[in-house]
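Today's session is about reading a structure prediction critically. Students often jump straight to the picture, but the first step is always the sequence itself: look for stretches that repeat, for charged clusters, for runs of hydrophobic residues. Only then move on to the predicted structure, which in these notes is written as discrete structure tokens rather than atom positions. Here is the chain we will use throughout the hour.
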Amino acid sequence: MPAVLNDEHWMRRALALADRAANEGEVPVGAVLVRDGKLLGEGWNQVICAQDPSAHAEIMTLRDAARAERNYRLPGSVLYVTLEPCTMCVGAMIHARVEQLVFGANEPRAGVVCSTCSMLDEARYNHKVKWQGGILAEESGARLRQFFKARR
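Below is the predicted structure for this chain, in token form.
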């Protein structure tokens, strides 16, 4: 399967998880972690339901995968998330040794991959995470716009 089709496949799964978050009253962000075409973990925003400020989709996904793999390090993995990650989530990806990040929509207020800064491109970290943004960005952004429009 070509990489673009593969990326879209996994991003669509992340979008379905974003829908689950929205149905639970959470900001619609979903994520999956994959290695060698195999799903390792998945998650969606749960900060309100879990009463946990760290329960972002990326963190929940990394926790799910680490439990399944019985290892906090997840080398060779690709994290697909519907929204550009924040500082906390990028830090967790670096510590988990995620190989690559693929995200949908940019996050102009808190995204630290390319919107407000370029954390993953800084030389000071001992692990490099490759990244690509814009996969199904319009679909990801539309879910967020719809969610916040309904809340106003």
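Discussion point for the tutorial: The CA atoms of residues 105 and 138 lie 7 Å apart.
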